[in-house]
Amino acid sequence: MKKQNTPKKTFGQRLNQEGVAGYILVLPFIFGFLAFTAIPMAMSLGFSFTEYNILETPEFIGFENYIDMFQDPKFVNTFLVTIRYVIFSVPLRLLMALMIAMLLVKSTKLSGFYRAVFYLPSIIGSSVAVAVLWKKMFESNGVINGLLGLVGLPDDTAWLGGEKTAMFTLIVLAVWQFGSSMLIFLAGLKQIPVSLYEAATVDGANGVKKFFKITLPLLTPTIFFNLINQLISGFMAFTQSYVITQGKPRESTLFYSVYLYQNSFTYGKLGYGCAMAWFMTIFVGLLTLLIFKTQNKWVYYES
Amino acid sequence: MKSYKTKKIVVNTVYHIFTFVLALVMIYPVVWMVMSSFKETEDVIRTATDLIPDHFTLENYVTGWKGFAGIGFGTFFKNSFIIAGVGTIGAVLSSAVVAYGFARCNFKGKGFWFSCMLLSMMLPFQIIMIPQYILFNNLGWVGTFLPLIVPAFFGGAFFIFLNIQFIKGIPMDLDEAAKIDGCSIYGIFVRIILPLIKPSLVTSAIFSFMWKWDDFLASLIYLTNPLTYPVSYALKMFSDPSSGSDWGAIFAMATLSLLPIFFIFLTMQKYLVEGIASTGMKG
Amino acid sequence: MKRKWTAIAMSLVTVASLSLTACGGGGGNAASGSSASSEADGKTTLKLCWWGNQVRNDATQEAVNLYMEQNPDINIEVEFMDWTGYWDKLSTVAAGGNLPDIIQMDYAYLKRYQESNQLANLDEFIENGTIDTSKFQEGVVESGSVDGSCYAISLGIQPPCMVYDKAIVEEAGVEIPEYPTWEELYDIGQTIYEKTGVSTCLDPSMNTMLLLARSYGGYIYDDLAEGDSKAVQKHMEYVEKFSQAEFCISPELWAEKDAANVDTKPIVDQTTWNDFPFACQMPTIATAAGREMGMCMHPKPADATAEQNYLKPSMFFSIAETSEHKEEAAKFIDWFSNDVECNKILKGERGVPVNTDVAEAISADLDDNTKRVFEYTEEAGQMTSPIDPPEPTSASEISQLLETITEGIMYGEITAEEATDQFMSGTAEILQEAAE
């Protein structure tokens, strides 16, 4: 590596400038984004100003889709349903993930086994098997009611048939599949230098104090990441509603993304679907921006 | 000293009992699924409330493995391994490099490109599916694995973002020290950063493999020959809402399709060890 | 304006792909998984796609193999998918101008694809005898026709019906009439519930309403377009009357059981004793339940003025307008629907064969349940009225609306009258939007 400080920079030195190196390192993303994502994205934005049933050429209609959207009671309903889902499922899932991660960060002979077991529910993902599984568990004569009956609670709830309870089952499913957030928390916890805990122990700090003074602050970048990521995927949640409840009963579990999909493909209104997608993207984007703005108030970075 | 030891044993026992019981509750639905795969196919739905099959049978595995139209699940598994395996290598490597650029270098337009990255996480795939199909069709890639694999080599937004968060957690002192020792920006990445973000690389690899393994929509759109279908997609073909489903085969093959991810998780999670601590540096 | 916009978009895509091709430089053969189409050896390659389950996939592939054996100059590449994925893919592929030559088509999508000029007009092939329709059941060609031209040939037909659990009905000691009215069904349901505790169901979906409209001599989508609410009103009243009765399945259970899926219908686990599938689904229901099922005509209103029954085309096949081998594709469809050997392999899984000779020829080899379906289809076939035209493009949106509104009645949140008003105004809006 050359180190002389001559006025004229060599090629190697140029490459080593932050401004240049940054671009070189990020180049794969920029290229991939422009090639595979940017144009389709721009086209979908374009489609949102058209009437387009996929099979015929799109017809330009200006802002009509966006205007229609706010006069569509179903649009408003699905939006509210999704927000309700996100408000309950995201914090609960993150809390669950953090608690289990704290439990499993301890290295024992069984750690690997435990981690795998707790991660399993997330592995089965959202396949058709999960849909059946979840329906059967929450059926009137299913396992959940059986367990409730054992401890003397009412055991005749038709979970998937009630407007409130159907949403509840979907939230439980989301919380149950906490694995990916847990794994990220686990990785985050592993990154916290052990030396900090050792020093704290010497200073006589107890477990609770260590958690609030060391673990939590140093984990904030991970919490921040999980929060952003879960928010985005929460708003985009699709399969649960589509496969398990089909929006029933009375559209109380009809997610935004499902309605968007129905419009785009089943009803032949891809233009409207794209407008819906962009509305949601802007909404989630602003929400994300807001959380990014609060970042320096609570997220602690080493650098 | 003795009482300390006893206390430790008690604490450990309580820990294991608690964790174990919690694990059992969590895993019940999965156990149910595996058990169902050993039931006779007509019984899967009919006796859904019973965990233990009346008659254990391996028939579902036999009929399921045969697949469709003479194409067995062996082929589907092979395809899944190619798609998920190659895609994961690409995603993990490229995302780490890109994340390093975002986390440690200041360059013009950084904020813009970062926003683009986040934006690409927010748009539902179904919406860009059609323009993307036209694009790959013009490239002549439809009917091959390329549309499923190549984009991964240019970094996945989720993995880039994840790595950025981890790189930001590494003290700058380490970079500075290496710089003084004569390391270039690229050298720092290879010698300092890469070893220290092992937990996030491992996490990325597990996620990438799992998501690619589970994804069926992209395969559905871009693959044209049943010989190239992956497991995730083949699983869907046991069922039809109007003409009936072979639940036994679905559960049997779904159980088999869990195994690779499960084993990859088991082997990979070993590397989820202390990153910084092993270097002996203090933060 | 619109042309210009599309042109810009398309050229953007092309530019992007060209520049990519330039960069990529033909790499990546390693990962290529497609089979090369073998035009070189003088063979014609046809692409055929369908949706279905394992049984259908296996049987269709076997039939295709037989065809390729008999026609060495034809090579058929197949693609099979699941129901939902199939329509996602088909529309995407159509947008890319890549539709396979022979496409399995559904009643609900036929009109949309035809209106968008995606399907080839089959009149020519029917007239010159490439597709021989002389032995077809009456109405089959019409059922695949839009504005007097045929765009799809159905491989099978099936009438609507009511299926009932024989053991439960026997236990209750009731007799199910061959052609019950809704009023009779109400009384039967009451008796069965009193004797056995098993509930009755009424399918509140579009299928039922469509049949009601037919029994008053109308076509539901015409009625809706004209603002004629007679059938709608009647439908909502039946839904209300039944769902208020104690013997009827509760809305919670109805939602939970998911009647849209043939093997989770409430009849399968004896939550109800009856159901309203199309005839060909009976064997699947019987297998799923593991019980013997009886079949009778779909109930009609007591004051019916016309025959509601019809032979619904169960599984259409169309040829893509973009196909370069329409003639060969038509020959295959002809063979598919008229060849006895082929249908012996397919075993009527896509519905009772439209060719009456074929149906008779293969019926000997069938299992008891499927035989019963064939018999029933013949009985019902003797009392039918002409089939309705293919559903309008907004039909799926309308039936979704109906589902939500009838749920409202079942949960006791709205009355039949309110439901009628809501549905009429809702459909008027949807139809108006579609007409624009």
Describe this structure in words.
The complex is a heterotrimer of chains A (303), B (283) and C (436). Chain A has 15 helices and two strands. Chain A has helices at residues 11-15, 18-47, 64-71, 73-104, 111-123, 128-137, 143-150, 163-176, 179-191, 194-202, 207-236, 239-245, 256-266, 270-293, 295-298, and strands spanning 50-51, 59-60. In chain A, strands 1-2 form a two-stranded antiparallel sheet. In chain A, strand 1 and strand 2 form a beta hairpin. Chain A starts with 10 loop residues before the first helix and ends in a 5-residue tail after the last helix. Chain B has helices at residues 2-36, 43-46, 59-66, 73-104, 110-122, 125-139, 146-149, 157-168, 172-180, 185-196, 198-214, 217-222, 231-236, 247-268; strands at residues 239-240, 244-245. In chain B, strand 1 and strand 2 form a beta hairpin. In chain B, helix 4 packs across helix 8 (157-168). The two termini of chain B are 33 Å apart. With 436 residues, chain C is an alpha+beta fold. In chain C, the strands form four sheets. Chain C has a five-stranded mixed beta sheet with strand order 2-1-3-12-6. In chain C, strands 11-7-13 form a three-stranded antiparallel beta sheet. In chain C, helix 11 (230-244) packs across helix 19 (416-435) and helix 18 packs antiparallel against helix 19 (416-435). Chain C is globular and about 70 Å long. The two termini of chain C are 17 Å apart. The interface between A and B is large, with 104 and 99 residues.
Which shape of chain C, going by the Cα principal axes?
globular
Q: What's the average pLDDT of chain C?
A: 86
Helix segment tally of chain C:
19
* CATH architecture assignment name of the largest domain in chain C: 3-Layer(aba) Sandwich
Name of the top-level CATH class of the largest domain in chain B: Mainly Alpha
Q: Give the CATH topology of the largest domain in chain C.
A: D-Maltodextrin-Binding Protein, domain 2
Contiguous uncertain segments of 5+ residues of chain C: 17-38
Helix and strand run of chain B: HHHHHHHHHHHHHEEH
Report the largest inter-chain contact. Answer: A-B, 104 and 99 residues
Q: What's the CATH class label of the largest domain in chain C? A: Alpha Beta
Helix content of chain C: 40-55%
**Rg on CA atoms of chain C, Å:** 24 Å
